[in-house]
Amino acid sequence: MSLVGELSSSSTTGTGFFSSTSPLTSDSGINSNEKKITDPYGQINFKFMIIFPLLLVVFFILFFSFSQVYGGRQIVILVIGLLFGISLSQCKFGYTSSFRNLIANRKGKNFRALITMFALTMWILSIIISASPNHKSWTDKTKELHLSAAPVSWTVFFGSFIFGIGCLHEVGSGIVRTLIVFIFFIVGTFIAALDWSFNVWFKAKSEGRINLIEKWGTAGGTIFQTFVFLILGIITIAIEIKKHGLVEEKFLQRILMKLFPKLRDIARNKSNSIESKSLLTNHTKNAKREVVKNIFTKKHDIYVGSILLTIAQVFLYLSTSNFWGVMGVFPFLIALPLRAMNVDVEKMKYFQEYSTLPTHFFANDYIVLDLSIILGAFLSATVTGTFGKGNYRPNWKVYGSAIIAGLLLGFGSRWAYGCNVGAWTSPSISASVSGYVWFAGGLLGNIVGVVCRPYVGLKN
């Protein structure tokens, strides 16, 4: 699951480390005839001055530690993970919100941004693999590039369905809720890795790992997968136009109006919003371009996130031969401390037959990747002024549902061979059939989750 895709989505105040409102700039005690001396971007937020350097210190400690112990590989992963985290947070790129917006609000922009990222990454990697079929990982010449696929089985569908229900709480929905969901997410994956559970999902009857690129060749598999992405995009456009008369993307709306002039009348009948009037009159604002400020302190369009995440995934794949994944290492986060307390966790079949327990935390690529993604998101949230925003009043009904949601996310993702990143994104990019199975179960689960949200004190 995307750990930080919606890290700061609940925040609506502040414009980054330059706060637009400050006691220092209020009219209180200042003669109106006196000229106020302020920074052109507003007053500096002192929380930024404290948190940001601390995060940089953490980064450099990790950087130099990795360089001394592991060499270049973990440093490369650390930097790529920062790009992931910054992109997810800065562009509000959330998997959960994409499903929920489509299901509850009939808005498909976030979902279309997701499949745009899938298509871009797939085409770039397909071209690279075709041009250099024997290409080795940049950081480990013993590793060949490979495609991502999970067994096509009922456990993938069932697990993704359970995971989808757990998405009624998104990771990144506020500091307290995020911690609760995240902790029990990890607990859920460990429970699913116990022998009684492992014997079911790992040994379930399956059709094997089916990859369309391996069956039909690079061109055939890639073109077919692109066609599927296109169909999904068209379906979301149709759903959104039927409900709202418009799509959220202005560029796409203008293209659609030129291709289908009748959409202009549908838009007039469906919507009277300022945005729709702007689209209908082809009116554009000549906004001032504060380029340097906006790059670092403003949230960017989700399609910018699609491009940045594509770049991050391509570099991760070429550097390590690994696809993007998140939760595969979560059982380690419980098993390693237990081993330190002399609990013989290595007797678990999960660590004997499926995933080898590393010697320590930072020896595993994905632990480093997850850590650096979180660090990158915190850096971004600090710069944009959204770090620590949210409602801190305790709501035990919400917290209780967050515990259940975390367990469902962890248990479901392990049964499905991954979360919406490792079991949907990566197989979809690889044109693997398991991605379709995960999507079907995840979509149904999210529908159930959307229905359940009001009953646990959450809004859609």
From TrEMBL:
Signal sequence, start to end: none
InterPro entries: Sulf_transp_TsuA/YedE
Membrane-crossing residue ranges in chain numbering: 44-66, 72-91, 111-132, 152-172, 179-202, 222-241, 302-320, 366-386, 398-417, 437-456
Compartment(s) where it occurs, according to its Swiss-Prot or TrEMBL record: Cell inner membrane
Keywords: Cell inner membrane, Cell membrane, Membrane, Transmembrane, Transmembrane helix, Transport
Membrane topology: Multi-pass membrane protein
Domain of life where this protein originates: Eukaryota
Main location: membrane
GO annotation, cellular component aspect: plasma membrane
Protein name per its UniProtKB record: Inner membrane protein yede
